[in-house]
Amino acid sequence: MGVLVPCRRRRLGLVLLVCLMAAVGLAFLSNYMTVKKQHVTSFLKRSSRNRVTGHSTRESHHAKQTHAQRPVAWDTCVDLLQRNQSKADLTESSTALSHSHHLNVAAASCLDYTQNWQQNLSAGVDTRDFPIAYILVVHKNAAQVELLLHSIYTPYNVYCIHVDKRSPSEFRAVLSAVADCYDNVFISRRLESVVYGGYSRLQADLNCLHDLVSSPVRWRYVINLAGQDFPLKTQNEIVAQLRVFGGQNDIPGVQSSSNIHGDRTRFVHDVVSNSDGQMSVVQTEKRKSPPPHNVTIYTGIAYYIASRAFMSWVLTDKVAKDLLEWSQDTYSPDEFYWATLNKLPSAPGGFSKPTWSSSIRAIKWVYFEGKQYPPCQGKYVRDVCIFGVGDMQWLIDCHHLFANKFDLNFDPVILQCLQELLKWRGERPYDTRFTAKDFPRKDMPWLL
What we know:
Elements: H1 4-49, E1 61-62, H2 74-82, H3 87-100, E2 108-109, H4 110-118, E3 132-138, H5 142-151, E4 158-163, H6 169-180, E5 185-187, H7 199-213, E6 221-226, E7 229-231, H8 235-245, E8 253-255, H9 263-266, E9 267-273, E10 279-287, E11 298-300, E12 305-307, H10 308-316, H11 318-326, H12 337-342, E13 361-362, E14 379-381, E15 384-386, H13 392-397, E16 402-404, H14 412-427
Parallel strand pairs: 3-4, 3-6, 4-5, 13-16
Antiparallel strand pairs: 1-2, 6-12, 7-16, 8-11, 9-10, 14-15
């Protein structure tokens, strides 16, 4: 027994030593995991702040900053819609919703990115037999452009994005990354430095148009949009309206006169650089020659819904080409070029009578507030209403396919709610509670 006691003591000592070493090891491991977690958390926070600096490919990570794909529940939007709130209440609700539903996505594969947005596709009648071409002329706010793109996206359409050459490189990179994730979305092969009121705005459309006519997608109509536009109708509803058009163009225009932008085409205009480096268009004292082929100039808007036949004619017709060359030193030729061509007898789908009637865009001008529509519930910027959530009912009641203008940074909730509205209507095409009456329109002047 005396011999065994030391052995037992030695065994007990070994057990205690092992326990001590295990305790030390566990403490070290716990500390290591804590530090590691802190490093990972720090890295993720840094990653989420990183800006895009290059292009992505279909297999690479798609870096971007955007708002949540499913930001606001439709029930919440209905609640806002049904409450007759004051502007102060609406502002408070808007701030609360935008903060609680904002999502900053650091990186996602193209597969994850596109699958996320697939949930927003309108359900219902398949529109693959009526593809549409879209032209998006954009220069800022990548998140809002993404939201617009995905609200008009279907796999059967084709989308050309013209990105202003002077836009920040990170903005261009984000949209290039988005385009890389889709077979039917692309950046225009030729980009312009777009100057407000200049020929470059018209040229940007034409650059995309040249790309689109060579696309394998046999689109029926082309619609051009700006980055601050947003759809008021689902893709099924847009197609329903275009079917009613039956090949006719939606290009409003009235004859120009001295009182309606007359000097824009009577005098030569130059693009000049200001002292701060900004480019602008200025009128000179030099008079222009008359329009070619004795064409009568019509004043319209820069936005259109035009048939493929019309656009193919625009790119090949001699009168259209000569008018395009003549317009290069005018002011805002995009606001008379399409309208003028649409009035010519040879224009496919054209309409010779003057009209401002159009289904393209709902817009509130300060000049007509209280006369043609209720007051703007957002704010005015350069006499145009930036819509707020209080404008939602008016927008729902509109027959127009799109509306302008929206600003994601000013009031994200109106955009989020319209996105939810489109999804809701797409899933319930026979429920007309939140649909404009007598849609699609059949009373347009060129249809009567």
